[in-house]
Amino acid sequence: MGITTVRRLGVVTAGAAAAIAVTAASASAHHCFIPMNTLDGPTSSNWFVISAEMGAEFEGYTADCDGARDAGYAALREAGLPVALKVFEKMTIGDPKHTGRTNPNGADGKGLEYFAEGSPLPMQMVETYVAGADAYSC
């Protein structure tokens, strides 16, 4: 990995942290999400989906070609990470009245996650996607 790639990854990683924070802030009234292992999952008006590609684009990273985008998603699958996050729009599941009674397993990477509980998945998802896409030569 060249110095330019490392530097670019560092900038995108820092930017991704800001993007996730902005997304989390906009979802603060319902700061829970479910990791998605496919982009073809069911949708409804109560949920919005943030793909890894969208998370990277929030900070100005765009894959150079379709092959790079596919490599980013392949890197996520290889690492066992989600390819998208599905955020519930109406309330926090498990704590609809914001009393702080969230699921104690809410940041373990295995199901329902909470931004406020410090789940590492959003950052891991974006960082892995960018590293995979950036490593691909178009």
SSE layout:
Blueprint: H1 3-26, E1 32-36, E2 47-51, H2 52-57, H3 66-79, E3 84-88, E4 113-114, H4 121-135
Antiparallel strand pairs: 1-3, 1-4, 2-3
Helix pairs in contact: 1-4, 3-4
Short description:
This protein is α+β, with helices and mostly antiparallel strands.
Question: Tags for this entry?
Answer:
single chain, 138 residues, alpha+beta, 4-stranded antiparallel β-sheet, 4 helices, 4 strands, 43% helix, 12% strand
Explain this structure to me?
This protein has 138 residues and is an alpha+beta fold. The protein is built from four helices and four strands. It has a four-stranded antiparallel sheet with strand order 2-3-1-4. Helix 1 packs antiparallel against helix 4 and helix 3 crosses helix 4. The radius of gyration is 15 Å and the shape is elongated. The chain starts with a helix and ends with a helix.
Bulk shape: elongated
| Fraction of helical residues | 40-55%
Which parts are unreliable, with pLDDT below 50 for 5 consecutive residues or more? 21-30
Structural class: alpha+beta
- What strand order characterises the main sheet? 2-3-1-4
Percentage of residues in strands: 5-15%
What is the count of helical runs? 4
Rg (C-alpha, Å)? 15 Å
Order of helices and strands: HEEHHEEH
Q: Give the overall average pLDDT.
A: 75
**Termini, distance in Å?**
16 Å
